[in-house]
Design brief:
The complex is a heterodimer. Chain A is an alpha/beta fold. Helix content of chain A is 46%, strand content 17%. Chain A has 2 domains: 160 residues, Rossmann fold (3-Layer(aba) Sandwich); 134 residues, 3-Layer(aba) Sandwich (Rossmann fold). Chain A is built from 12 helices and 15 strands. In chain A, strands 2-1-3-4-5-14-13 form a 7-stranded mixed β-sheet, with helices on both faces. Chain A starts with a helix and ends with a helix. The C terminus of chain A is likely disordered. Chain B is an all-alpha fold. Chain B has a two-stranded antiparallel sheet. In chain B, a hairpin with a 2-residue loop joins strand 1 and strand 2. Classes of the chains: A alpha/beta, B mainly alpha. At the A-B interface, helix 2, strand 7, helix 7, helix 8 and helix 9 of A face helix 3, helix 4, helix 6 and helix 13 of B.
């Protein structure tokens, strides 16, 4: 074997191995600011506060990365959720945008349109709620579904104490895939871990994410189970309605409400003792992280491959991994949960207000509304 | 029995039949559910009835004139949000002003419906389907996808739903049901004893005849829509007080519940007959079935189907009882008529 052939062989081997190595162990990929991308942020529906927070997070990243392009925020109305999202994707394709960030209303039905977007060279990233893997580059998962079950079990235990007691779940719709996965995870935790032996899950009811229905279902629970001590609602609509129902009936000292809630909506109920503890991830952070990932992918700085590590501004370093809940799918897991109690609810609610004010400066269109919020917050 | 038949007019049979059905429904659930006859259950139903009842009263006026108002859910949602926003900006607004704002906003929206239906001669189902979407769109636009949060509201509205005006045997009279009963009584009197009320029946019975008789039909129809809007505005105030957290989704789909209650309550969808009191019982009937089904812990997938089935059975039995009662009464009428004839012949 002569030296030349040996050198070629070594080079070839290195060339094959090295990219993999650099992706595994190398420095995280850092975004280069100032590249022009037109991006669409497409949440499930209009009029939901959490998606507005995700928008704020995305705008924060948009400014941070000095993207001279446009960040378009658009969503369908709730009664037109799936067709509305398809329409918005189709029109984004004709407008030749560079990237679409979507929280999908349906796992299968949006597939044809997100696939044709990808064929047109558009980067499609899902967040909050994914589509099937062939219709997305990757999914930004807010939290691990298993972790949701664990967090709910922990909150229930900390509210009910060692001696435990009866509790019930007030969910969204019976076929809401997120909620069902979380409830299942909670049940697994309760069954498998002896720590939670004293907690007795007596019923699961559904308020259909309608405030009125949720309110009635919460009252129905306390009428049906005289020994009930806790209502766990893994939905922001359900938890607020249940807390209001307990407040109206003067039952806050007897029956606690917990679950997944928005700090701004729950603050007063937490302070009054109606909802002593609840949890949520930050939608602002979710929007921010989603924007970073999408920017990196759309500028070509990063490939959507397992094991790739990157830096997402203020939130630090993340790694793309295989999605354990879906076959052949990639995800970036944001996590963790924030648990809100009387001690920290104040500062969190304050944080959100400050964020509102910051946005008011940068966004002329939103200024009127932001002013309204500022005033109302002051009041 | 014969005496009773002389005192109760045929027009009131509908209400009696509905009351019988309601009693049967309550008896049925009382057997199925433990601890059913409690003050708690009554309070639940009373609060649930309040909101829908107020809106159903307005809807009754509109339906009497052979029209329909499908925009009520959106009006409730918009006023609830608008009022919540105003209250959070000016916490000094008191109860009276708040109600006035809500009723005013609702009436304005009703006026738009009424003007287009009455003077534009567009079928009301088309107009109000349009404003159903438009008013909801206004709400989404106005809200800037923010929500009204409980903590932003002044204290008096937070505690309003749980206040007790009068208590007896653990049965509370709370402000929201009190509003509903008040509204129902006022409009029952208006429909039965005022010129405006009688004209609504006339227009619904025969628009042509009403026109020929010189009844200002258009103005009356417009007024019915304004009242429906105003009461929906009042409903918006009640929705805000009850729910506390208002999103752009507030009161979506409420119009169907209201129309269902009105029809079950014996108001003829083709106009001309029915009463506010009947619609009120219709609301109580549906709410009772709904809340009792929640207590029965039925599989969620069956609940809506069962609610529908219960309502249908109730209406079927109602038709049956009505037929029977009518026959009884018509015999009385015949006898009365024949005795009059006898007197005349003598």
């Amino acid at each position: 074997m002569n030296k030349l052939r040996f050198l070629i062989l070594v080079t070839v081997i290195l060339a094959v191995i090295l990219p993999g190595v650099s992706a595994q162990d190398g420095d995280p990929i850092v975004a280069e600011p100032g590249q022009e991308l037109n991006m669409v942020l497409l949440p499930k529906t209009l009029g939901n506060a959490v998606f507005d927070q995700a928008h704020e997070g995305a705008m924060e990243a948009h400014e941070e990365l000095e993207n001279p392009g446009e960040l378009i925020f658009n969503a369908p109305t709730p009664d037109n959720a799936i067709p509305g999202q398809i329409e918005i994707i189709e029109s984004a394709i004709t407008q030749e945008v560079d990237a679409i960030m979507i929280s999908a209303n349906d796992y299968e039905q949006l597939l044809p349109s997100t696939q044709s977007a990808m064929e047109a060279g558009i980067t499609v990233v899902t967040w909050d709620s994914p589509v099937a893997p062939e219709g997305e580059a990757l999914f930004i998962a807010q939290v691990d579904f298993d972790e949701t079950g664990q967090v709910m079990a922990d909150m229930a235990l900390s509210i009910l104490g060692e001696e435990g007691g009866e509790f019930a779940i007030l969910s969204a719709t019976p076929d809401a895939s997120n909620q069902n996965a979380w409830i299942e995870a909670l049940q697994t935790v309760l069954e498998e871990d002896d720590t939670y032996e004293a907690l007795e899950l007596v019923d699961i009811v559904y308020g259909n994410d309608d405030p009125d229905d949720s309110y009635n279902e919460a009252l129905g629970l306390i009428d049906s189970y005289p020994d009930l001590q806790l209502i766990m609602a893994p939905t922001t609509v359900g938890i607020a309605a249940a807390a209001k129902a307990m407040f109206d009936e003067g039952l806050c000292s007897e029956i606690a409400v917990s679950g997944l809630g928005l700090p701004a909506e729950m603050q007063e109920f937490t302070e009054l003792g109606c909802a002593p503890q609840f949890a949520l991830w930050s939608f602002t952070d979710l929007g921010y992280l989603t924007y970073y990932v999408t920017y990196l992918l759309a500028t070509g700085a990063m490939e959507a491959e397992e094991g790739v590590t990157f830096e997402a501004g203020r939130m630090g370093t993340y790694t793309i991994e295989a999605d354990p809940t879906r076959e052949d799918a990639l995800r970036v897991l944001m996590g963790p949960f924030s648990v809100y109690t009387e001690e920290n609810i104040d500062e969190w609610a304050m944080d959100e207000e400050e964020m509102d004010e910051e946005e008011g400066e940068g966004d002329e269109e939103g200024e009127m509304e932001e002013e309204a919020t500022e005033e109302s917050d002051a009041g | 029995m014969r005496r009773v038949r002389y005192f109760i007019r045929v027009q009131q049979l509908r209400e009696i039949s509905l009351l019988l059905i309601l009693a049967a429904v309550i008896y049925f659930f009382g057997r199925e559910i433990e601890d059913y006859y409690t003050a708690r259950m009554y309070n639940r139903i009373a609060t649930q009835v309040a909101l829908i009842a107020v809106i159903a009263v307005g809807q009754t006026l509109v339906v009497l004139t052979r029209n329909i108002d499908l925009s009520v859910g959106s009006i409730v949602g918009f006023t609830a949000f608008y009022l919540g926003d105003q209250l959070s900006k000016n916490p000094n607004i008191d109860l009276e002003t708040a109600v006035a704002i809500a009723v005013g906003v609702g009436a304005t929206m009703g006026l738009v419906n009424g003007l287009i239906v009455a003077y534009g001669r567009v079928p009301s189902i088309v107009v109000t389907l349009g404003t159903l979407a438009i008013y909801r769109g206004l709400l989404v636009e106005y809200s800037g996808s923010q929500s009204i949060q409980f903590r932003q509201l002044p204290d008096w509205i937070k505690t309003l739903p749980s206040e007790v005006l009068y208590e007896n045997f653990g049965l509370d009279l709370r402000p929201l049901p009190a509003i509903a009963i008040g509204v129902m009584l006022v409009f029952q009197v208006v429909l039965l004893y005022t010129i405006f009320g009688r004209r609504l029946y006339a227009i619904g019975s025969s628009p042509e005849a009403a026109e020929l008789a010189g009844i200002p039909s258009r103005r009356m129809i417009m007024l019915a829509f304004v009242i429906s809007g105003a009461l929906s505005g009042l409903g918006g105030f009640m929705y805000l007080a009850r729910i506390g957290t208002i999103t752009t989704d507030a009161a979506r789909g409420l119009e169907l519940q209201v129309v269902a209650a009105v029809v079950v309550g014996g108001v003829n969808i083709f106009g001309g007959s029915g009463t506010v009191f009947g619609a009120f019982i219709g609301v109580i009937l549906i709410s009772t079935i709904e809340l009792s089904l929640i207590r029965m812990q039925i599989n969620e997938f069956w609940k809506d189907a069962l609610l529908g089935a219960f309502i249908m059975v109730a209406v079927l039995i109602d038709t049956f009882i009505m037929g029977w009662l009518r026959a009884l009464w018509s015999r009385t009428e015949l006898r009365r008529a024949s005795s009059v004839q006898k007197v005349q012949s003598i």
